[in-house]
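User: Here's a structure from my thesis project, written as structure tokens. My advisor, Dr. K., wants to see whether a designed sequence matches the one we expressed. Can you design one independently, without my sequence as a hint?
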């Protein structure tokens, strides 16, 4: 099969692993810088151009779209969909998962467990917003933040008021969430491929750090999921419409709570923690799906 990996940086671990694994399995793999793609959208035969010429016909595309280029990256993926190419994750699903507010609203509507959350831009009554999510300690998140950036833990209601007012002064949209103290600064990353959780790890924040991101010094260990945690991860992935994703879950006294669904989950942490060839499992899924008739939500639609 001829497979394209959309990635801004071919030296990244995940991009390298996917390219390496694909070639080991006998596929022709090309890494394409997403921002260097440009599209012909004015003819009846849509195409993606790169380096001064149209790209060849691919059997499958693996989008590794960074958060900073979600809009343009999704447009490139959508163009491949218009051309009838199988895309590991659809453009509409990538956009949906990157919009934190929209994704939480969709998950909530489908009954997926979530931390109690408030959304605000210019609340008239900050005290009521804080009270509505259960009071301090609570977590305040920038809507556009990634990898733990723009996430603040407020220990008291007074501190929460000050932080919210500071963000309001910057005209920032924020989420205010209850702090799940029983999680102990840890979460579970469930790696979903197709309709299976193929690997899971427990991430623990560094000493004195409530954020468990590995980029911020957190550690990861193999974890055995409960039946409820596995079902929650699969349900969240299904709601988002993602073929491959990372579902981040908090263990709470009222069951698993979804924090986020990541459409471009990293491979290094999960492969090292679990010892599983996750890249290989992704290719197994591509090989089983790419030969099927393409039926995306976006093909042929505006």
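Assistant: Designed independently from the structure alone:
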């Amino acid at each position: 099969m001829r497979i394209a990996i959309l990635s801004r940086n071919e030296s990244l671990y995940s991009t390298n692993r996917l390219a390496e694994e694909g070639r080991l399995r006998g596929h022709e793999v090309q890494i394409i810088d997403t921002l260097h793609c440009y599209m012909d959208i004015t003819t009846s035969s849509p195409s993606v151009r790169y380096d001064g010429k149209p790209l060849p016909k691919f059997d499958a595309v693996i989008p590794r779209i960074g958060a900073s280029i979600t809009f343009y990256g999704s447009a490139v993926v959508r163009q491949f969909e218009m051309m009838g190419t199988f895309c590991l994750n659809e453009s509409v699903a990538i956009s949906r998962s990157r919009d934190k507010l929209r994704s939480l609203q969709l998950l909530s509507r489908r009954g997926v467990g979530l931390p109690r959350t408030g959304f605000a831009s210019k609340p008239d009554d900050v005290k009521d917003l804080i009270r509505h999510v259960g009071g301090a300690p609570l977590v305040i998140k920038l809507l556009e933040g990634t990898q733990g950036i723009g996430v603040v833990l407020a220990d008291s209601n007074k501190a929460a008021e000050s932080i919210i007012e500071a963000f309001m002064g910057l005209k920032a949209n924020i989420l205010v969430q209850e702090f799940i103290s029983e999680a102990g600064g840890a979460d579970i990353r469930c790696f979903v491929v197709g309709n299976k959780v193929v690997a899971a790890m427990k991430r623990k924040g560094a000493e004195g750090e409530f954020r468990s991101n590995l980029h911020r010094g957190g550690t990861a260990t193999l974890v055995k999921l409960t039946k409820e945690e596995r079902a929650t991860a699969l349900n969240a992935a299904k709601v988002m419409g993602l073929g491959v994703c990372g579902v981040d879950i908090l263990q709470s006294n009222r069951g698993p709570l979804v924090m986020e669904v990541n459409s471009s989950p990293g491979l290094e942490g999960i492969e090292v923690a679990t010892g599983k060839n996750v890249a290989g499992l992704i290719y197994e899924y591509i090989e089983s799906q790419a030969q099927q008739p393409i039926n995306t939500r976006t093909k042929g639609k505006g």
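When you compare it with your expressed construct, this may help: The first strand starts at residue 2 and ends at 6.
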